[in-house]
Amino acid sequence: xxxxxxxxxxxxxxxxxxxxxxxxxxxxxxxxxxxxxxxxxxxxxxxxxxxxxxxxxxxxxxxxxxxxxxxxxxxxxxxxxxxxxxxxxxxxxxxxxxxxxxxxxxxxxxxxxxxxxxxxxxxxxxxxxxxxxxxxxxxxxxxxxxxxxxxxxxxxxxxxxxxxxxxxxxxxxxxxxxxxxxxxxxxxxxxxxxxxxxxxxxxxxxxxxxxxxxxxxxxxxxxxxxxxxxxxxxxxxxxxxxxxxxxxxxxxxxxxxxxxxxxxxxxxxxxxxxxxxxxxxxxxxxxxxxxxxxxxxxxxxxxxxxxxxxxxxxxxxxxxxxxxxxxxxxxxxxxxxxxxxxxxxxxxxxxxxxxxxxxxxxxx
Length: 364
What we know:
The chain is α+β, with helices and mostly antiparallel strands. Helices cover about 30% and strands about 30% of the residues. It has an eight-stranded mixed β-sheet with strand order 6-7-5-15-16-17-14-18. Strands 9-2-1-13-20-19 form a six-stranded mixed β-sheet, covered by helices on one side. The radius of gyration is 21 Å and the shape is globular.
């Protein structure tokens, strides 16, 4: 059997493990030094901005389109296999428009998406206030509504992917750290040995999907791949009632601030984008989180009545010197595949990434 190891059990590694588990003839091991969704995935709001994105062609759109299509089958597939529901907000994404926002650009995108089989709606201010009376801001002139975009719980999704992969025969090893990757060439090809804190594992294919942990793994192999941390913070607010109409609770986004409905009249507000300093360190700045909160309140003043019940922060992997994400074979190392550096789109692009990796292995 073809032996495969996947390092990293965030949303990317878990999705790859599951998609590969659907193929015959593979012996798959999923490894993480902590537990599923313990890194960047656990610090994500799960807003899937695909159709409403201005990506319209090339790799950026193709990845989004593939993921959107796969999500429609993946969620019921996982729920059936695991018996566990996966929370998905199917009420769409509402992007606020401001006075300097060109309508012509949106009209072109609406036509393009219609030709691709997707729906986008341009709302004027009256339509917006009628459907979302919670939005009260003089700067807002309307909104773009994308009913087919989604929001999903990244942690529960990742756990379901891991559970389903394990049911399909994937060997899941958590709390195990990979200490060294040793390439070994034989007459009949290349294979790799992984020295871990528990054993030495021999594999034919190695997939590195460890986010920020990818860099220390591949640095000894001397490739030119750099990934830097970009920190994000968010907070959760509890209200005594829903924002706006109880039967219409889309994700609301404006000026890079998301208002994400949760259960029990709770809402996530986020997220900041905080880059490392000259020493490469990135530390949460509370004043930036407060700015996000105040901006969300400026859009929906009713949020001021809420109580902050939780805050979190997490680091996202952003490639330095090349576009996100990195999905490619490691230079000079056949059958080591990188699937990392998704920055702020890991949850959105996980299905497409997994399918790309699966096809590369399947067709090799």
